[in-house]
Amino acid sequence: MTTPASLPRAPRWPHCAHGADPVTDPVGCRGIHVPGHTACLAHLNDADRTTYLASLAPSAAIDLRCTPFTEDLLNQLLTALTDHTTQHPHLGDAVFDGAQFTGPARFDGAQFTGHARFDGAQFTEGA
Question: Which position among 5, 55, 68, 121 has the lowest Cβ density within 10 Å, counted as fewest Cβ atoms?
Answer without folding.
Answer: 5
